[in-house]
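ERR on first pass: missing label on line 2. Operator R.T. fixed the label and resubmitted. Corrected input:
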Amino acid sequence: MIETHPKAGYLLVKIKVKEANLDVADQFKTEMFELIDQGNTTLMVSFSDVAYVDSSFLGALVSILKYAMSKEGDVSVVDLNKDINNLFSLIRMNKVFKVYNTEPDVFA
Amino acid sequence: MSDKFKKILLLDDEGFILQMISKALSKEGFECMMAKSVVQAIDILQTETPDIILSDYQMPLINGFEFREIILRDKRWKTIPFVFFTSVTDHEHMQKGLDMEVVDYINKDTPMPMVVSKINNIIHTIRRQHEKSIQEIRIAAEALNLRSVPAQTPEITGYQLKFLYQSFENYPGGDFIDFIQIDDKYTFVILGDVMGKKWGAWFFSFNFLSYIRSAIRLCVFDGNLSTASIIEKINKVIVLDSVLGDVLSTLSLLMIEHDTGKVHYSGAGDLPVIWYQASERKCMAVESSGLLLGVMQNGQYNEKIIQLESGDQLIVISDGMIDFETEDGKKSDYDLFLKKMKIVVGQVDSFDLIKNVTFSSEYSKGFVDDCSLIFIEKD
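pass 2 clean. output:
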């Protein structure tokens, strides 16, 4: 359910589902934990294909961040649609994750 | 039959058969996804979860039995009811197919209306079983007095306090509500949502509620009535607790000072509280600053003071209230919800109107999570 693209200083992870919800949250978490265990601790998650995110998925995303941080890494997000971007601001997920509009060339 | 449990994955290498079954089932309200090969079917299963799979046996490259084996090996898919639909009907094949934990093995010569009835029956049975299991757990929870929403709201002189709660598809969910009255002077109002759905969230909602209840009581014993400081303490405990470490929750915590009409409000990753000011006849969203409970040690919690005057109203909601199923799919839209509220606040019967616009059977069909709303009005 994810596709990875190595970038300068980070790994871009594209979510390949339209609805990021409870049904896929566990799988997403497992796959992301595997990436972190392989040493990819600086990750940027792209929501370009995602139309809707539910709270279970957000919960998984925060668990992934906490895990990455425990290994001195970081998780940021990019390409949120308007609704998801609004939701991130409303519930202050934008204070938890760095939110990018477009993929940066180098991870700042 | 309700629209629930009516998504079907059809697999057959013959396009004509796919079209025929799909036509018959669509008429019965099924949402049909069609695959002409096992590879295509697996591809669909990556992003969709059907309620039942109907598969042919004889197909080039990978046959139906091999497909069934793949399905059984994957924990995401193995519980999806599986039916063979094939013209290979010798006893040996039928026996082998039935031994693969399938619910039925249907001969392709069976008249289409009968096939449809069989599938409908399977789905009915599954649904009934499902409802029965939920009911049994509900009874057990009731017996243990496990409630994540109160049986009733407290009476406070000078205020009206009401709430609405609806579970998602009758599953208990992660929302929790409580009211704690201290000496006729203060009332704490709690609304939270443990992230996740169904059983996991429901179970953890009790844990969270217990923490919050005890934190409030302990802080009050110490003379500490600051909602920000209470939420800060709750967060610290949750971040350090290894059992809850992976569970996250929103929280709106309000404390009403009965005498003064002051409401102290702090939030953790919650949605803004809607405040209707009667004197100005205007509605505004009051935002808090804090992060979800359990994310990090420093949750950045602030405390807003809302001075309620006569006729003022407050609406506190969980995120399920702003999620909608639309023709284009699911979406979350707080502004749309706020717009709807602006029409109904400031009336004598605002609460009933809110109930009608948000919890009417027509409207709540679009709900995709459990939904909670607390309404506070100063007389």
